[in-house]
Design a protein that fits this description.
Layout lengths: L9 E10 L2 E11 L5 E4 L6 H9 L6 E6 L10 E4 L10 H11 L7 H11 L15 H12 L6 E5 L7 H16 L3 E5 L3 H7 L2 E6 L2 E7 H6 L4 H7 L6
Parallel strand pairs: 3-7, 3-8, 5-6, 6-7
Antiparallel strand pairs: 1-2, 1-4, 8-9
Helix pairs in contact: 2-3, 2-4, 4-5
Length: about 240
């Protein structure tokens, strides 16, 4: 699997997103570049999911602009997103991936080999015939990730990919994130788990009330946060 990179950087230029007069993102300026995962953290309602959806191209700003590789209008053929609660189709694990391959217009002749490759990538070897809805929560999450990877994206957005998973399933998912990162796919993910953010992030974006409070290289952020809000958040205090 070799992902293209022409959608990067993804640049937010003073982006505001609102719904029914409620501002969700407020004046976001951010550049998402190639490399290690960019991890979004922050309290519930801080705007993490909306930022991911906007970066994917699913949500349009009311002001400001988003560009992908310098282009303001770029079809999301090289981007993929996995939602926090992905829906499994009422068919086998392999058929779930086959559906995604068809949607991505991948040539039919390569489907079987791609399905085998993707199942192996997410450590679901031998489970292709299992009904997807009878798989464990962790297995379903990894299957959803395999579906997202079916289009061979350059950028992969993950919304709380390990929420509600036990430690073993969380480790399995994190291992897949590391693998796809090593293959050149840019991962942008949100998480509530600061331990996970420490383990995976190349850079951190801390959001609060729809604004970026602090962003920077992960090690520097965790070792020497610059803002009072970041210090409070890392200390486990509530941001209100």
């Amino acid at each position: 699997m070799r992902a293209p990179s022409s959608d990067l950087p993804i640049a937010f230029d003073n982006v505001t997103v609102a719904s029914r007069s409620v501002t969700i993102l407020n004046g976001i300026t951010l550049s998402i570049n190639a490399g290690m995962p960019t991890v979004l953290i922050g309290p519930n309602g801080s705007g993490k999911t909306t930022l991911l959806r906007t970066a994917m191209g699913l949500v349009a700003p009311v002001s400001g602009r988003v560009t992908w590789g310098g282009r303001e209008f770029a079809a999301p053929t090289r981007r993929a997103i996995m939602f926090q609660r992905p829906t499994m189709l009422r068919r086998s694990a392999a058929a779930n991936i086959r559906y995604a391959l068809k949607a991505a217009k991948i040539p039919r002749a390569s489907h079987d080999s791609r399905i085998a490759e993707l199942l192996a990538l997410v450590d679901l070897n031998g489970l292709g015939d299992r009904p997807a809805r009878r798989m464990s929560g962790g297995e379903q999450q990894r299957l959803a990730l395999a579906r997202a990877l079916a289009c061979d994206p350059a950028v992969l957005f993950l919304d709380e990919p390990t929420a509600s998973l036990d430690p073993a399933a969380t480790k399995a998912m994190e291992d897949v994130v590391r693998t796809v990162t090593d293959r050149g796919i840019k991962v942008v993910m949100s998480t509530h788990d600061l331990g996970e953010a420490r383990r995976l992030a190349g850079d951190i974006v801390l959001l609060h009330r729809g604004q970026i409070v602090e962003t920077g290289e992960a090690t520097a952020f965790f070792n020497s946060p610059q803002t009072g809000e970041a210090k409070k958040f890392l200390a486990g205090e509530l941001l209100v």
